[in-house]
Structure of Aspartate-semialdehyde dehydrogenase:
Amino acid sequence: MPKKYNVCVLGATGMVGREMIKVLEQRNFPVDKFLPLASERTAGQKVTFQNKEYTVKEATSESFEEMQIGLFSAGAKISAKFAPEAAKRKCIVIDNTSHFRMDPKVPLVVPEVNPEALKTHKGIIANPNCSTAQMVLALKPIYDAVGIERLVISTYQSTSGWGKEAIAEMYEQTKALLENPKAKIVPKYIFKQIAFNVVPQIDSFVDNGYTKEEMKMINETRKILGDEDIQITATCVRVPVAIGHAESVNIKTKKKISVEAVRKLLATFPTVKIVDDPSMGEYPTPIDCVGIDDTLVGRIREDISQKNGIEMWIVSDNLRRGAALNAVLIAEKMIEDSLV
Amino acid sequence: MPKKYNVCVLGATGMVGREMIKVLEQRNFPVDKFLPLASERTAGQKVTFQNKEYTVKEATSESFEEMQIGLFSAGAKISAKFAPEAAKRKCIVIDNTSHFRMDPKVPLVVPEVNPEALKTHKGIIANPNCSTAQMVLALKPIYDAVGIERLVISTYQSTSGWGKEAIAEMYEQTKALLENPKAKIVPKYIFKQIAFNVVPQIDSFVDNGYTKEEMKMINETRKILGDEDIQITATCVRVPVAIGHAESVNIKTKKKISVEAVRKLLATFPTVKIVDDPSMGEYPTPIDCVGIDDTLVGRIREDISQKNGIEMWIVSDNLRRGAALNAVLIAEKMIEDSLV
């Protein structure tokens, strides 16, 4: 009988936390004891795992005493506080927040892309930003084949990336505007009206005029691909979609690669699926990716504006692939490699 | 007393046609006789101009006999048929369809950008695609100052660009999904579900994997800026917005230009307005541009991924700036230059 592990989910009541619990269940992850945790604010709520109802407990340093794997998604501050406490108690933390991602001592991992980085772990592993995770999956086989010199990215990111309150806000605004097109909309979670609108701001601005979200995509992509020389620029935009991020990615490769060769590489890369037959009206849209593991790639074409260029359109479930699934895949890979 | 002109609007019942009539009225265009025209399908409907109701007449070649200026927006086929008939009868055609845009004998004009092209007209002047018009306005002062080598464009285009049926479709789908999140959506005008989704296809595909819309942006931008050497790539995406196109534009200039210099240039360029103060949460979104003449530019920043790069976000009312206003501005410029 395979070994089983004591697993806790910190942030169990959030969108990503709930998706983590669902993924653990769906993948039959070898869970022995299961412990859902949250901050004081939402502790006491109920969650269901393998047909059993659990009361979510408030996290304390002692919560991690008997745990072996901790999936964290309760915000950067809570990770900053509890991840070292968990690691000290031999509970390996797979952290979905941004807090440790750029820490040189913490591996930042998409298991299909840079599993080798897991070997260097010191108790904490970081899960990348959702928009980064799906993009590096589609880039990795191209990077390995011909190298990547530069990326120009524009994103179409769903409201779930900003939490369940942001989805609710989108639906509320939409209802109000359908009832009265002149309804006064006061934004609360998303920076501007998101219903029937698009908002070119995700997270706050930094000094160079980029947003934190844009800088995450730039810095995390370099760290995951292990190449600080890739030149990257990004514009991250919130769109009125519930779940599923889309990305328009313009790639300058180091050596020439044909569209056919790109298709062949992507076709065999794990958890990437090509949806790309313009003549049949086939390309992925956000609603196509909801609840599935695969990252969908379409609109693959030779960039007519530069010598070694490829254009592509990458779509993935940001809660699942970009967060919950990635965390569980990391845990599975660590078990496989006897790192737990 | 200034001279007045007999003006007809062909396609008077469509979204752009109605906006043309509104713009003629709002700008006090010197109209003597006014004649609203349409195809057989919608002739007979009523429109109002300067507080007077008109019955829209079915267009025939003879409709243009006494007309001096014809604003056309009834589809490429109707323009192909009637524009030469009108021109033959000394009615100058300002055509909003794609039919004549790339004809080397037909000037393609954004009046603030290349008014000199009007002088070569032979009776027909083409109005550019809406997404091209707003972009070249923001690019022109940069082009003149330091030259442009390459553009990487991703668009966020509203449903009104595909006609009033597409807006109605968006609202219908939205209502259906709010009532029942599992409602079966059958797309009709837009290629895929547009409510709570984004669709990376505008117009049909051509052989190189780009869409016609993308190729229009590429070819028309070169023609208007008069520079076939600018390298351009574009990904055009439909978003669930009613009116207002947004564009994420990455610019490689020939010579280095600072963000401050770009701001100064744009600040004095006609019909361009800078809305760009990240520290105050200021940047334009589609709902901000509806019904106004100005093209709004924000998120102006130095592109950290290349030596001479600028990133910007361009937002404009596609019906007004991208179509109706541009056509009327062309007519005004021709009057000013005694070309009518």
The CA atoms of residues 119 and 337 of chain A lie 9 Å apart. Chain A has two domains: 5-128+323-336, 132-318.
